[in-house]
Design a protein that fits this description.
This protein is mainly alpha-helical and about 475 residues long. It has helices spanning about 15-20, 35-40, 45-70, 80-105, 140-160, 170-190, 210, 220-240, 255-275, 280-310, 315-330, 335-360, 370-390, 415-445, 450-455, 460-465, and strands at about 5-10, 130, 135-140, 400, 405-410. Helix 6 runs antiparallel to helix 8 (about 220-240). The longest helix is centred in the C-terminal third of the chain and has 31 residues, at about 415-445.
């Protein structure tokens, strides 16, 4: 394994390391500080930013994603989608604090952590989590809360692929199993490492993809490709909606969808800029990149529709915006604003082709285009990160934390792109394979899909005994 592969993505400049050095360290940064020393290195500004980020990332799930998805389904299924997203968030949060955080962010193996912090054992107000700068820490509770919101939204994304045709209880069983077998290990493999003050003493204390040197600033592999391929597998196992392609199935409220998409965009600033873990210039860079990549992607989709159909649609504009948000996620702290715009536009064009042409050609019923936007956009973003992170293109490069204090590394674009492709392939195989096993097991035991007459009536009444609208 190449030494340069031991690095981390967010907070990606040596300047950030130097600027964030605490004032009391008169003789330079302290290597492997004690718990008491680390607690004294907590930055209140960073802590505040992480708590705010956690709150607005939660908003991405409820209400943003729920409204975005809910507006795209038919009236008779609006409430069921709202309930699915709301309860997935609730269940995922409980799984996270019970065993997920420990599985993802403690040492153990390159593939998954241990259970030493199950049920948050040993965590308290004075315990700390590392950032990406030597001798800069945040409260562990702040880190737990922030990462919990990622665990909440990722399985919620999956339901859009088979919306309007899945029973509620099997869905929640799938979510618990999928989080445990897929999401928590993926988070560990991509994001776990010993920290900037400790990695130099134990360079093997890191997740598998981290050790490869894969760059994923805020979840291109862990969140979007992971959820997108699971959604595709789910819609294939469950089957097409009754009446698919034979009867019209228009969105019942694009107003709701636009509101949801707009809230997603706002919350995504916490998602991406918050992933820097520090309130510094690199968080601001991720913020700006998230802004302009999304704008570029929305414009690109609208232009394509104008050329192809003569009319740009609101649905297309918000779809393009989400494609841009997905693509910039792994690259947010690495790219320059101008290359971020290009990345967003490229992702928008490719996602448009998948949503309109590839899906129709292959005939799968990905209801809300989870695969076509999240998985495909995530792949474009993950591989593109290897390009846009190059300092020769204005990118931020990477930091070598196997040296203390950390130093800037030498960037190899070709090698990085190969590493990114490997990370994408592993994510597709792990999530796709495990998801297929889980969906098939549920299908042939308790069943995944309601009866045809129930589906025709809508899931609101049959699954929850109420309607989204009573008028």
């Amino acid at each position: 394994m190449k030494l340069l592969n031991h690095m981390r993505m967010a907070g990606a400049g040596l300047a950030a390391t130097l600027m964030s050095m605490p004032a009391f360290a008169q003789d330079g940064p302290i290597k492997a500080p004690t718990a008491e020393q680390a607690a004294a290195m907590i930055n209140k500004g960073d802590n505040t930013w992480m708590l705010v980020s956690a709150a607005i990332v939660l908003m991405m799930s409820v209400p943003a994603l729920a409204l975005f998805y809910g507006g795209l389904v038919r009236t008779k299924n609006m409430l069921s989608v709202l309930m699915q997203v709301f309860m997935i968030v609730s269940v995922a949060a409980l799984c996270w604090v019970s065993w997920g955080y420990s599985m993802a962010f403690t040492g153990g193996s390159p593939y998954f952590g241990g259970l030493s912090k199950a049920f948050l054992a040993g965590v308290g107000p004075s315990s700390v989590a590392a950032t990406f700068s030597n001798n800069v820490y945040i409260s562990e509770y702040a880190f737990i809360a922030f990462q919990m919101t990622f665990a909440c939204i990722t399985p919620a994304l999956i339901v859009g692929a088979f919306a309007e045709r899945i029973k509620f209880t099997p869905l929640l069983i799938f979510v618990v199993a999928w989080l445990t077998i897929v999401y928590f290990p993926m988070a560990h493999m991509v994001w776990y490492w010993a920290g900037p003050d400790f990695l130099s003493d134990n360079t093997s204390d890191a997740g598998l993809l981290y050790g490869w040197g894969a760059l994923d600033f805020a979840g291109g592999t862990v969140v979007h490709i992971n959820a997108g391929i699971a959604g595709l597998v789910g819609c294939l196992v469950i089957g097409k909606r009754h009446g698919y392609k034979a009867e019209p199935m228009p969105p019942h409220s694009l107003t709701m969808t636009m509101i949801g998409a707009s809230l997603l965009w706002i919350g995504w600033f916490g998602f991406n800029a918050g992933s820097n873990l520090e309130a510094n210039g690199y968080a601001a860079l991720a913020f700006v990149n998230t802004f302009v990549a999304t704008a570029g992607a929305a414009v690109a989709w609208a232009v394509i529709e104008q050329v192809k159909h003569g009319k740009p649609s609101l649905l297309g504009a918000v779809s393009g915006a989400v494609a841009g948000l997905v693509a910039i996620t792994p690259a947010a702290g690495f790219a320059a604003p101008m290359t971020s715009i290009i990345l967003g536009m490229v992702a928008s064009i490719v996602c448009f082709l998948f949503v309109t042409t590839v899906k129709n050609a292959l005939g799968y019923d990905d209801t809300l285009d989870v695969f076509g936007i999240h998985c495909v956009g995530g792949i474009i973003g993950a591989i593109g990160t290897g390009i846009v992170a190059d300092p020769a293109l204005g990118g931020q490069g990477w930091v070598d934390y196997t040296v203390f204090p950390s130093v800037a590394g030498t960037y190899d674009m070709a090698g990085q792109v190969v590493t990114q492709i490997k990370a994408v392939l592993l994510t597709l195989v792990l999530s796709g394979g495990v998801s297929a096993i889980l969906f098939l097991a549920l299908k042939h035991t308790i069943g995944l899909r309601p009866a045809a007459e129930v589906e025709a009536e809508g899931l609101d009444i049959s699954e929850h005994g109420e309607r989204a609208y009573n008028y």
